[in-house]
Amino acid sequence: MAWNMVVAASETADIFTLGNDVFTEILTALFMMAVIVCAVILGGKLRVKHDAKVASEAAVAAESADVTDNKTE
Questions:
Q1: d(CA 51, CA 20)
Q2: Cα Rg for the chain, rounded, in angstroms?
Q3: Rounded CA separation 71/65 (Å)
Q4: What is the pLDDT of residues 12-28, one digit of tens each?
Q5: What is the pLDDT of residue 23?
Q6: Model-level pTM greater than 0.70?
Q7: Quick one: DSSP state of residue 14?
Q8: Domain count of the chain?
Q9: Cα 57 from Cα 51, distance rounded (Å)
Q10: Do the domain assignments include residue 8?
Q11: For residues 12 and 4, what is the distance between their CA atoms, to the nearest angstrom?
């Protein structure tokens, strides 16, 4: 009985069903690529901001270390 259902399902498949499946797969692939591209761009921007924050914190730490050194001399 299951075999009859498979045969019946394959008989109803036509070019429109195939076209719909291909179109859906293409849209899915495009969506996944867009998500990856957005993640890479956002990651790059966040990395630049993080590096700038670390550099400014290092500058403040070095400046406060200089002030501490001058007080002890």
A1: 46
A2: 30
A3: 10
A4: 667 888 888 999 999 99
A5: 93
A6: no
A7: -
A8: 1
A9: 10
A10: no
A11: 13
What pLDDT digit, counting tens, does each position of 33-59 carry? 999 999 999 999 999 999 989 888 888
User: Which residues span the domain enclosing 59?
Assistant: 35-73
In a domain, 47, yes or no: yes
The total number of residues written for the chain in this structure:
73
How does residue 62 score in pLDDT terms, banded at 50, 70 and 90?
Answer: confident
Q: Is 55 within a domain?
A: yes
Q: What CA–CA distance (Å, rounded) separates 8 from 30?
A: 32
Backbone dihedral region for residue 13 (phi beyond 0: left; psi -120 to 50: alpha; all else: beta): beta
- Considering the domain boundaries, does residue 16 fall inside one? no
Which tokens is 18 given? Answer: 């195939």
